[in-house]
Amino acid sequence: MSPEADDEEVTRWAHRAGRGDQQAAAAFVRALQGPVWRFLAHLAGPAEADDLTQETFLRALRGLPGFAGRSAARTWVFTIARRVAVDHVRAATARPRVAALPDWQAAAEAAGAVTPGGDDAITLRGLIAGLAPERREAFVATQVVGLSYAEAAQVCGCPVGTIRSRVARAREDLVAAWQGDARPARGGRAV
């Protein structure tokens, strides 16, 4: 909270912002933005704090018209921030862990197909480009972009199980290609 704003002043800004005062809304956010960011950085990590702070203030600003003032606005916003952090952690733990699945790159490294600092990144991009289109789409969405399987299913317009299957088959194809045992992808061309 800015040194010049106390809890009562921040609460007054919250009430005025809830009635549509844009300057009060800006003052409210400025007064609490730093402390909320620091709070979220400790709960979820500094890399996530910017996005979570933004989500906190989006929720708070939407809720200001209904803010009753039973507690200080600062307390109310930190309660929202905590919920945002909990929602973030819950969503992150609901995502399938890529590390728990067989790692195609680790398998390629173990087979001696990858050498650090070599042209392997170029080779890997070429191998990914050689996957059957539906496998490449699922693999890149989940393993490169980082979408959850459910998100990738929405993007690709197919069931989650299909995404899981396509990613698994793409991994198998990539490992085989790294090992020099390129075989035709089911329903596609040789990898």
Automatic annotation (TrEMBL):
What SUPFAM superfamilies would the database entry show?
Answer: Sigma2 domain of RNA polymerase sigma factors, Sigma3 and sigma4 domains of RNA polymerase sigma factors
User: What would be one Pfam family of this protein?
Assistant: Sigma70_r2
Q: Where, if anywhere, are coiled coils annotated?
A: none
**GO terms for MF:** DNA binding; sigma factor activity
Using the record's annotation, list all stretches that form the RNA polymerase sigma-70 region domain. 29-93
Entries under InterPro entries matching the protein: RNA_pol_sigma-70-like, RNA_pol_sigma-70_dom, RNA_pol_sigma70_r2, RNA_pol_sigma70_r4_t2, RNA_pol_sigma_r2, RNA_pol_sigma_r3/r4-like, WH-like_DNA-bd_sf
Give the family, as the similarity comment puts it: Belongs to the sigma-70 factor family. ECF subfamily.
Q: Which PANTHER family does the protein's record reference?
A: ECF RNA POLYMERASE SIGMA FACTOR SIGC (PTHR43133:SF61), RNA POLYMERASE ECF-TYPE SIGMA FACTO (PTHR43133)
Name of the protein: RNA polymerase sigma-70 factor, ECF subfamily
User: Which source organism?
Assistant: Micromonospora chersina
